[in-house]
Amino acid sequence: MTSGFRFSNRSERALADLHPDLIRVARRALELTEVDFVVTEGRRSEARQRALVAAGASRTLRSRHLTGHAIDVAAWIDGGVRWDWPLYPRIAAAFKAAAAELGVAIRWGGDWPRFRDGPHFELDRAVYP
To answer: Which of 24, 44, 80, 125 could disulfide-pair with 65, CB 3.0 to 4.6 Å?
Structure first.
């Protein structure tokens, strides 16, 4: 069974420049999820990444976003973005199930021991250098 959710044009534009395996995972996750989500960011420029580090929103200049190997999403509830933490493990469950089904190695920022990042998913650097 699929969720019936669809990506908006904005989400589709954010997906466009990502690694094809990450796109496949995101599309399948949207079919599997209980919680609708939008793609807020895909590939980033170096200038954008530097600005995020300066603002404290990221801690690295080696972000997987720079190479199209990472995606940020936001829960979409009743026509708006929601940042409530309990929504993100539910979205992550769909991403992890999609990745397992497709044989794609991903990491979820919500599993990181420090600087947990619930909206962030990336292709595993060990498999996708």
So the answer is: 44
Domain ranges for the chain, please list them. Answer: 9-123
CATH topology of domain 9-123: Muramoyl-pentapeptide Carboxypeptidase; domain 2 (3.30.1380)
Residues 20-52 as b or e (16 or more Cβ within 10 Å = b): ebbbbbbebbbebbebbbbbebbbbeeeebeeb
pTM of the shown model: 0.92
Each residue's pLDDT, cut to its tens digit, for the chain (129 residues) gives: 677 899 999 999 999 999 999 999 999 999 999 999 999 999 999 999 999 889 988 888 889 999 999 999 999 999 999 999 999 999 999 999 999 999 999 999 999 988 889 999 999 999 999
